[in-house]
Amino acid sequence: MKKTPCDKIIKHPCIRPLAYDGFTVQALAVRAGRIVGVGTYRELRDMVGPNTEIIEPEGEILQPAFHDGHIHLNFLKSEHHVDLSKVQTAGQLQDKLSDLSPSESWLIGAQIAPRIAEKIFKDSPNLLYEACGTRLVLIRTLDGHGGWLSNEGAQWLQSHAQRPLTTLDIPSKGIVHITEGDYYQALEQIPGALNRSSLEGLEGRVASVISAGVSCFHEAMIDEIDVPLWESFFDRYPVERTGRMHGMLHAKAGDWDWIRKRKPVFAQYEGRLSLGCLKVFLDGSLGSGTAWMHGERPSHVIKEDEFLEVARFAASENFQLAVHAIGHRAVQTALDVFETVRPIVPTPYQSFTPPWRIEHAEFVTPEDIKRAARIGVIFSVQPLHLPMDTEILLNSHRDFVNIAFPWTDFIDAGVALVMGSDAPTTPCDPIKNLAVACGGMRRALLGIPEAPLALHALSRDVALHSHTVGGSIASMGKLGSATLLPGQPADFVILDGDPLRVAVEELEDIHPLETWIQGRRSSNQPEGFKHARTASC
Ligand SMILES: [Zn+2]
């Protein structure tokens, strides 16, 4: 019996329907953007009709596209910002800033590493004044949790602030450091500080995420004004340019009434946009010195009562809840509230109960790891934070090294993991994440470089699971299962190396060649990346 013809057959010697399992097939049949058959070409041949396209992409492995479980596309710098990402010294910063014409009212510098900025401004507190005179200057740090203002900039912010500022203390000529609540006010108030109003800008950022091999990204901070922008983005562009987004609505302390008017929505725009998750901040970042490591909660974050209120609202309205918690005290507090408000979910795999999640979970005590597993909480981790934070960890938080980045303990305890980038803080690059998660970096952090790697690094299958199916679980499966099995969206990536089989040291040399979303090619890497090796396996 002849079957209904499919639109496309993708032929490739090495197709992995599950990124984390060595099992392979040689052909996929795609109809209306979904997989309708998996097998050998011979097995699928009776689905070939007169209009079926046969496509044979090059590359080593074809596998499900990645999820980026935590990203900030609203936070990327705009082209009007001075790019400070390469600045290492006071001299370089001074050169970058003095070159600029004084035409615009505000001068915004972006992407400087927080530790470098701190060192430069500690040694040279008058640098902004010397480079820019009395201009209004904002320097945004790379981690999205703090910035620096010129004296005049700080005065401007003080007179334009809508809510009382808490950290602002203005010296006569020097530099002012702002974090968290004050920093977000600065971003909202200062003209040009955020570039969130352009669809084209958004499209460019999403395109770079897709070309990293990602089909589904979990946007970690959506404010009220961002919602119509994202909606028009998904309305205007086709799926191969939008990918799929699991968005977290920002329940900002004292300012989340707009969320009370909403209901969770999932897989809108033909399975591309979910806005069914709420996000609360319980601390800041390690680099800005605002992670909640010990003592009282940081002053800028949501208070206990209000956090409980958000959590109760999420539970009663069936929203997912995501809590930003880096320090172990923040993680502990998040779990306390989860336990109080919500019945235990025996496993986060129960899709009818939204699994709640902790974003970052960089420091977690053994007791809390067990607790998270028991009550069914997902940890959303970003391995590339480890190399970024190693120095500060060893210099300022040595007491906490044993409980830092304990990914293997999470897995051993049975906590579900999703991996992401936290871009732009670290690059959106799933393969580099795998290289860190599976490599020797945590072993080195613990000071035991000779210990068996398997005890201190994730295995390849677990890391690949976390970057694909883990993301699907964390987005409640609403945007596809991140597998290439019949019924699933045909979202896949072709890599020029095999992440399950190369040596750990070679993982980072693997590149995505093409990303396909819903059966359509959406990105091609530049020629230089193509090694044109096609393996048989
Ligand atoms: Zn984040």
Overall morphology = globular
| Separate helix tally | 21
Largest sheet: 8 strands, parallel
Helix content: 25-40%
How far the N terminus sits from the C terminus, by CA atoms, comes to 31 Å
Bound molecules: zinc ion
Beta strand %: 15-25%
CATH secondary-structure class of the largest domain: Alpha Beta
Number of strands: 22
What is Rg?
A: 24 Å
- How many distinct folded domains? 3
Task: Fill in the CATH topology of the largest domain.
Answer: TIM Barrel
Superfamily (CATH H level) name of the largest domain: Metal-dependent hydrolases
CATH architecture level-2 label of the largest domain: Alpha-Beta Barrel
Give the integer mean of the pLDDT values. 90
Describe the structure.
The chain is built from 21 helices and 22 strands. It is of the alpha/beta class. It has 3 domains: about 10-65 and about 485-530, Urease, subunit C, domain 1, CATH 2.30.40; about 65-75 and about 195-475, Metal-dependent hydrolases (TIM Barrel), CATH 3.20.20.140; about 80-190, Roll (Diaminopimelate Epimerase, Chain A, domain 1). Strands 6-12-13-15-16-17-18-19 form an 8-stranded parallel β-sheet. It has a 5-stranded mixed β-sheet with strand order 7-8-9-10-11. Strands 3-2-1-4 form a 4-stranded mixed β-sheet. Strand 17 (about 355-360), helix 14 (about 365-375) and strand 18 form a beta-alpha-beta unit. It is globular and about 85 Å long. About 50% of the residues are buried. Bound molecules: zinc ion (ZN). Zinc ion binds near residues 70 and 220.
